[in-house]
Specification:
The protein has about 260 residues and is α/β, with parallel strands linked by helices. The chain is built from five helices and 13 strands.
């Protein structure tokens, strides 16, 4: 299991691609407050989902995350963000179409994952199945309510921790676990006690690699990648101007792609 260094703002280049042994991670922050964002790149289902949220902050975070996802994927596929079409792969448990998200059009070998929570989103891109998760640090009550469902080894690592340490330990375990479950395609339908995702990497599920992703003092994040640990991992922060969510004085094309500024 690896921990990445902090990400840096991205800069523009001509395009990106996926390749074996490399993982690209993108952090997106909600602008916090603003008028309704331009959702013209989104499809009808995404716009209906935005309208279903009661809290304005939740509507804005969902819109920001999905606008960002489409524009990031457009850079990899050399497509227009609004032309992308999504589907769900079959669930490995029941076979129904609620497994990993995938691109239906254009056809591409890339895999991706999206997560958002508490004003922050994380996108993962790889040539192999990937899952990502970001979560705002939980309250103590949330830790107490959810911990009994975890693997016994994970519960033992939480025992004795107090206050902020407890919240961080739980957040790390939870984001690794949800990233892994998203990566295998089951999501939270799989028993949370079945897999150990604590601090001992030797006990993690075989054939998957886990990465702890730094994202500031208020959140925890992780990525799970199928296969051996990637040779190269980039962590980028997406500027808000690139998302078209704030005014820009430069007049730069909001859908122009970015280059990696950080790798390990």
């Amino acid at each position: 299991m690896s921990t990445l260094p902090q990400g840096q703002p991205a800069t523009r280049e001509q395009g990106y691609s996926v390749c074996e042994g490399r993982v690209d991670l993108w952090l997106i922050r909600s602008p916090g407050s603003m008028d309704d964002p331009d959702t013209s790149d989104l499809d009808d289902a995404e716009r209906r989902r935005i309208d279903s949220f009661i809290r304005p902050a939740d509507r804005l975070m969902y819109a920001t995350a999905h606008i960002g996802l489409r524009r990031i994927l457009a850079g990899y596929t050399q497509s227009s963000p609004r032309d992308l079409r999504f589907l769900r792969e079959p669930c490995p448990g029941c076979g129904a179409a609620h497994g990993r998200p995938a691109l239906e059009a254009p056809s591409t070998p890339l895999h991706f994952s999206l997560s958002h929570s508490g004003g922050m989103a994380l996108v993962g891109i790889a040539a192999v199945p990937i899952g990502v998760d970001v979560e705002k640090l939980p309250s103590r009550q949330t830790v107490e309510d959810c911990s009994p469902a975890l693997h016994p080894g994970e519960r033992s690592e939480l025992a004795g921790a107090k206050d902020t340490e407890l919240k961080v330990r739980f957040g790390q375990i939870w984001t690794r676990k949800e990233a892994y479950l998203k990566g295998i395609g089951t999501g939270l339908s799989r028993d949370l006690a079945e897999d150990y995702l604590g601090t001992d990497a030797q006990r993690h599920p075989p054939s998957w690699s886990l990465l702890d992703v730094p994202c500031g003092p208020t959140h925890c994040a992780a990525a799970a990648v199928q296969g051996p640990a990637p040779d190269r991992v980039s962590l980028r922060q997406v500027p808000r101007q690139w998302l078209g969510l704030t005014e820009t004085e430069t007049g730069a094309d909001p859908v122009a792609p970015f280059t990696s500024t950080l790798a390990c």
